[in-house]
Design goal:
Elements (H helix, E strand, L loop, with lengths): L21 H17 L13 E2 L10 E5 L7 E3 L2 E3 L2 H14 L5 E5 L5 H13 L5 E3 L2 E2 L6
């Protein structure tokens, strides 16, 4: 038991018994900053109904996002900007690939897009020297029994 003598009672306060929370607040702030910096950014693309996969993984940081859509007048997209014609899309893609040749490329394709359009895009990317392109997939949700 802790006894406090009357002559020391003027110096005693409950604040002296409370733990110092400053180091805990520092650690919480560091963890919060770490989580904010490592959080996945949302993929900038046209609205899509992505195919599902059991092996979906995180996309690389700041990829050049190419969107293939099956709805609406804008069937192609780059980083959220839609294109009505394949010629406009290809021209903009060439400019972006020439400006940033080391930027990772990610393909977000609607699940109903014909495979031929994806193969044409892969051929175009290969012709420009892009050897690896990520494909955006939606994680497979387990079905309810």
């Amino acid at each position: 038991m802790i006894r406090i003598s009357p002559e020391n009672s003027r110096q005693f306060s409950m604040a002296n018994l409370a733990p110092d929370l400053t180091p805990l607040l520092d650690i919480i702030f560091i963890v919060l900053v770490f989580l904010l910096l490592t959080a996945n950014t949302r993929l900038a693309s046209l609205p899509m109904d992505l195919p599902a996969s059991e092996h979906a993984a995180a996309m690389p940081a700041h990829p050049l996002t190419i969107s293939l859509s099956n709805d609406g007048p804008e069937l192609w997209g780059i980083d959220g900007k839609g294109f009505r014609t394949h010629a406009e899309f290809e021209h903009s893609l060439m400019i972006l690939l020439a400006a940033e040749p080391d930027r990772p490329v990610a393909l977000a394709s609607d699940r109903n897009v014909p495979v031929q359009r994806m193969l044409d895009l892969f051929a175009l990317l290969q012709k420009q020297g892009v050897e690896v392109a990520e494909i955006a997939l939606q994680p497979l949700t387990p079905s309810a029994p």
